[in-house]
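Hi there, hope your week has been kind to you so far. Please have a think about how the structure follows from the sequence. I've dropped the whole record in just underneath, so have a look:

_____
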Amino acid sequence: MHATLERLEATTFPRIARRRVDTLQVNLGYKCNQSCVHCHVNAGPTRTEMMDRATIDQVLSYLRAHKVGTLDLTGGAPELNVDFRYLVVEARALGVKVIDRCNLTILSEPGQEGLARFLAENQVEVVASLPCYTEELVDRQRGRGVYERSIAGIRALNALGYADPGAGLVLNLVYNPQGPNLPPAQEALEADYKRILGETFGIRFNQLFTLANMPIQRFGSMLISKGKFNQYMALLRSAHREQNLEDVMCRSLVSVDYQGYLYDCDFNQMLGLPLKVAGRPRIHLRDGLAIDLDGNGIVVREHCYGCTAGQGSSCGGALV
């Protein structure tokens, strides 16, 4: 796999600083039941990195100490961590909102029986990957049979009340472009998703989030192999919009790797660019208990243009 960090080091991206942390995004491990072309984590079935129980307890301590309102769980497939359900239950007991970044096919994996019901019973917000509303394009990006299993996963969540008005169970879908392009307008694409998926399968969801593909790990390596890396970076830089800087996720989110080290965002985590405080090389959860990050400078590189290009891109979808 081609490394991309050296191509991203020299940057003209504006300097930005943090606000108060309101979201802790925790990567519970890089193991996944899928291997997607666009994956910036390079996750897959053969990865073995997993967060252990002691580090998960440090996550809970951080949530308490900083009164963080949202716990955003990601991976890999976060549900494959043996302590996933323990963390969800304990975080909900603290009154913390929990988001599960779910690939939908995990709901039908052996050993995950009852997962959908568990998510519903704990009022976990599900953010589910479905990179297109057509079978051909989803299976091309994520593997044969993924579309059919994804639709079955959405139906299972709908049957439990997800996306029902007044049920309080939120199901959002995520779109990624198939190649080195910016996502289309989020609002119009959401309308297409709701119309086509509703008419074809009778399924429903709350919102569609459009995310730009990041030029790192598996997707970045593919761009290099095809000779399109520089072209894609030029597209991101040319589409930069200054107003998107106000709401980029790194201003109020901290990313945590499976070992408990802190990063400004999940993308920096995958590039090995740790969050820095007063020149310290890296910060662990246990160190961060006593550190106020408000006003701290954010580590930026050229890939950051992926979050400010066009309508903007964040873990919550388009910024404008």
